[in-house]
Amino acid sequence: MLTCGVLAAAVSMSFAAQASTISVKPDPKLVVVISVDQFSANLYAQHRGEFVGGLATLSQGIVYPNGYQSHAFTETCPGHSTLLTGKHPNKTGISANDWYDRATGKTVYCLADPSVVLADDPKGRAVSPANMVATTYGDWLKAVSPKSRVFGVSGKDRGAITMSGHQADGQFWYQPGFGFTTFVREGQTAQERLKPVAALNARLAAELKAHPFVWDYAKGPLDTVTGGGSAKRCKALEADYETGGRKWRSALPIPVAADEAGKQRDLYASPYTDQVTLELAQNLRETYGLGDGPQVDVLTISLSATDFIGHRYGTRGPEMCDQIARLDERLGVFLKSLDKVKGGVLVVLAADHGGADFAERLHDEGYGTERVVGKPWIAKLNAQLRKDLDLSWDPLVADGGIDQIYVVGPDRKTPSITDRARIAAAALVLINSDPAVAEAVDSNALLTMEAASVDTSPEELSVTERLRRSAYPGRVGDILIAFKPDRVPATAGATYVSTHGSPWDYDRRVPILFWWKGASPHERVLPLDTVDIAPTLAAVTGVKPPADIDGVCRPLVYGQHC
Predict the structure, then answer these.
(1) What is the pTM of this model?
(2) Would you name the residues annotated as active-site residues?
């Protein structure tokens, strides 16, 4: 009979033996961090058995199937801001994709910066890292290793900038009709700033002119996937739907638009965006020799197509099926190109948020999911408050979405302290009585509440704590709302059927994968927060993160400590 001591010793020896064979410790000269926009844990699990390319390779490292974005407003800008800062949005300053500025009475984009201009269009949406008040892993690295290079690429500006930080050597994102662009500061020239992408932009423009991209089912190597190919598997998902009063067929190929604007829009919301983003990532890696020198370099890649496609077509139709198959293949090509790197390579894959399928398909499957249409909802609320409080103006603004509401004065700007208090109190009573709402909270209460313990699992966080982690003072709304899981605060349109942004697990849960040559496959089923990624990378590469981060380091090799 085994005593407790003998059993403990046996278990200890077993783990010691396992630790000696599990993994070679990563020693990277190139750290690659990939975010697949809207790549939920559900989407990863749904297609995991079909992976044969890059996603299959990355799944042969350390797999956290239960990663979490642990804040409430699971949107692209705040989600990306957590990945490499080690901080929640209430510390990164990026509380949402957009917020309302009561000083000006205007909506502000999360990365808006009037001190810069776009390289491709001086009148376009000017952006920079200025609004992000946190630093990133790349910034920490460059502070102690000035020769380290950091580049960020994406289909979106907010994907390229928030991951690569304030001191990046280049941040580029895809602009339909132009190619990859960036921002230009005073004293710089567009030509100078675009030099790293000029040749690729010219080649892509010539290729599209000669052979316009038509999105049909993938051909070539993917036809052999899982016996019969991705085309056969994806085509079986074709069906007819009605969303927002529009009847449409979910199927490929996507009809070619008649006008140029429509063609560019359709190109953007297709696998093409990820294809060219990965081409640029490989091009920058090889041009600048990232990972070939004695210093550690960083390459951040945010792949936007999954999000564009999820919004436009939903997450479980033939469009997403084909996108995931192509993503797997393209990542495989990119990872193969990293064989040329002279130093070690550590690759991390995560996501800025998850996402659910569109409400109508879920409703047809018996889930009772319904939409909450924003404009009439907020209009009804304003009408009731005007009546109850004898107001001459609409006191609530929800320009960034009805889950964050701002109290305004008669001029749609900052109200008096008295008006703010009585309007918010009355509005909270009305909102919390709405059967579509799970919880509504005054953000002033969140800004002063005690934070949950760092030991609290992301799975166990209260909705109030999730909302607190989204609340950055001066930018977050006065009233923060968590709609019930079966209520979707979004309107369906011709190019928009599905959304994300809620505090519920289908929007919070994301896969987090760590892979390097020498890593033995194993799965860690306990939750991992996305804010843990940056301190983990810092420990691997000998960099000290700021003392006020929220994340904690997680050892990548058994028996070793951070």
Answers:
(1) 0.94
(2) 76
